[in-house]
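Board notes (copied after class):
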Amino acid sequence: MLRFLLRRVTGAIVILLVISAITFYLFYAIPRDPARMACGKVCTPELLTQIKQNLGIADPMPVQYWHWLTGIFMGRDYGNYGHCPAPCLGYSFTNRQPVFGTIMDRLPLTLSLSVGAAFFFVILGVGAGMLAAVKQGKALDKIASSFSLLGSSLQIYFVGYLAMFLLVQQMGLLEQPSYTPLTEDPVKWASGLLLPWLVLSIIFTANYTRMTRSQLVEQLSEDYVRTARAKGLSRRSVFFRFAWRGAMGPIVTIFGIDLGTLIGGAIITEVTFSLQGLGQLSVRSVDTSDLPMLLGVTIVAAGAIVFANIVVDAVYGLIDPRIRLA
C-alpha cells in the first residue's frame, strides 16, 4: 500500500508542476502587458515601473517561472513591498499583501462550506439511492428517481435566493448565511452555514441518488451476488458485504471530484450567499485584474483537485486490493 501511495504522490507532484507551468505561461506570456494586469485597475506609472522590476518582466519566460517556483519553497523579495515568506505564491499589488496569506484567510470558510455540504449530500444521496435500489420498481424507487431528475435540473443561484427569501426573510426558520470560525463558536458556525449546506446538498444529492441506485441495481444482478443468496446468506449480508462494496468505486470517484472542486472554490455558492471564500476571491481578482492573486487561487484549486484524487486512489486501494498492483 505504501508503494502504491508513493507512486500516486509522485505522479501528483509532476501533474502540479505541469499545471503550474502551463498556468504561469497563460497568465504571464499571453497578455501583452502582464505587469499592467498585475497592477490592477488603480495603477500609477510609478507603481507599474516597480511591478515590472519585481516581476522580472524583462527576463525570459523560463527564468520568470523559475523565480516564481523557487519563491514557493524559499520566499521572494519584492523590492519596496518587502519579503514574501515561503510558501510564496506571489504578491498582490492590488491588496498590498502576499497571495498565500490572503488565500489562507479565505480557505477556512471554503473548507467549512465544502465539508459540511459533502456530509449532507453523501448521507442523503447515498441513502436515497440505497432505498431506491432495494425497492426497485416500487413507489419509493419512482419517488427517488423523480427527485434526482428534478434536483439535477436546478441551479444553485435559483434555489439559493428562493431559500433565503422563504426560510430566512419570510419564515425566519434559518439565519442569514454568514461565517464564524469553528474555534470561536461551533453553534454559530453551523447555524450560519446551514442554509448553504442544504442548498448545495439538494443539487448534489440528486447525482448521488441516481449513481448509487444504478450501481447497486447492476451489482445486485451479478452472478456472485445470486450465488451468495443461493448459499443461504441473509439479504442484509449480501447487500452490504457484496453488492454495496462493489458499487462503492464510482461513488468514491465522483465524491473525490466534487469535494476537490468545492474546496477549489465554490464560486456560484459563495457569490449567491455573499460568503468571502476562495470562490468570491477569484471573482474579485478577475474584476480588479489582480493577476498574481488569480494565479495563486488557480494553483490552489488545482492542488485541491489533485489531492482529492490521491485520496480517492487510496480508498480504491482499500476497497479493491487488486488496484494497488496497477
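Comment from the instructor: The beta strands are 76-77, 83-84, 91-92, 97-98. The first strand starts at residue 76 and ends at 77.
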